[in-house]
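Any chance you'd type out a single protein's sequence alongside its tokenized fold?
>
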Amino acid sequence: MSTTVVIVIVAVVAGLWGVGAYNRLVRLKNAIGNAFGQIDVQLKRRYDLIPNLVEVARKYLSHEQDTLQAVIAARNHAKAAEATAAGSPLNAGALGALGAAETALTGAMGRLFAVAEAYPDLKADKTMSELSEELTSTENRIGFARQAYNDHVLEFNDAAAQFPTLIVARLFGFNTQPMLESTQSEEERQPVKVSF
């Protein structure tokens, strides 16, 4: 009888531990979804600012229509990729497509700002200045939200890969999640050279 009691106690303890491990993995996975939701909010804010910025620039850059159209096309592509990723924030393919679309949008916006530098009237336009500042602020928020997302992914991946929790993770299909990669090109990652 004492052996049976020990077996029952061990089974109950193991069952309680398994439930606790499962619940922790669920909580961590939900935290990843919430963190992506924060990125999603900032991306939508960014996508809403871009058409206003283009409209202001259009007044001054009438012969730069290709640049303006490239920005809008990149914005629309990124917005579509964001909608797909928002539908499944734990899908590596959707996150990869979003990263590629964001890289293209960043490049198009960079070209727009480079062209705008050549137009003093556009640079001095109050609305353009306010929109640029708002966009910069939003970019910073996106960066912080991406960092928080990656922190949650790291915590989840660590929990799912550590023994003995990895037993529960494998039994219930808790697979490691992809990190969000930088949207900067290799050229943009190079240190800025300053010379006097």
Q: What stands out?
A: The radius of gyration is 24 Å. The helical segments are 2-60, 65-87, 92-117, 120-124, 126-161, 165-171, 186-189. The mean pLDDT is 88.
